[in-house]
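Hi L.,

As promised, Fpg/Nei family DNA glycosylase:
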Amino acid sequence: MPELPEVAALADFLRARTSGRTIAAVEVGSIAALKTFDPPTDALAGGEVTGVARHGKWLDVAVSPAPSGTAPSGKVPGAAPLHLVFHLSRGGWVRWSDALSTKPVRPSLGGSGRGAVLALRMRLDDGSGFDLTEAGTRKRLAVHVVRDPTEIDMIASLGIDPLSPEFTTQALADLLSAKNQQVKGLLREQRAIAGIGNAYSDEILLVGRFSPYKLTGSFTPEETARLHTAIGDVLAEAIAAASGKPAKELKDAKRGGMRVHGRAGLPCPGWDGTPCGDVVHEVSFADRSMQYCPTCQTGGKPLADRRMSKLLR
């Protein structure tokens, strides 16, 4: 699943290629992926892309409606700006082309197989544009056309952005003390901290040297500061690695930059880049897994599988 660093890179990538261009058409391939009906997707046609933003893991393409006299049928001249907002979820991706296929997109219910499904295509006036596709059996990609991104409940309820100036050590301390829960869960909770998911929470906890099961209510001021630094360092490093890369290379860049996530059984590179001599361990759940290093994070003790026995905190 794309997380904050990849979504930020995708926003930069799309902004550089779409800003100032006119939308020729927006074609829906997966009816199931489209979560709104008013405004309709064809209200975007003829409009000019004015920017691309990020809200947590959501991408937001801002569109200025077509000027009076050139608007498509049914378009209201002088209408408020529109936003094409989408969440890629686990299997979604943005596929850019400098010369999109001219073959019309056939709408479908979205499909249930593992193969990639074309959910939406945006064509620009110069023939370029992008496809939103989704692979896997669980189709969760969500596409919205709205007048204001905060009309989407999951955006309106997002927590603090970890890249914002407001994300101070004290702000993190307040989140840690608000509810006594496992720190891994807090880092992944979008209503608390927007943009961090399963992969980067694993990375942050390694760099911070914390067990994923450590309870947030047990954090000392020194540990809180250490976690705050780890969040900033890991995200900044990942953003720098993703910056400037084309969309098609971002997935590989993410995998290549991971220290522990997705690396079960491989040597741990160490929380500070000095190999610790241990190997990366894994705990599996129904729909995900997490990776960690016992030496760096849990005092050398393997974590128990939460489905079978008591958790190690």
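The beta strands are 23-28, 48-55, 58-64, 82-87, 92-97, 117-124, 129-134, 142-146, 281-284, 289-292.

Thanks again for sending the construct details.

K.
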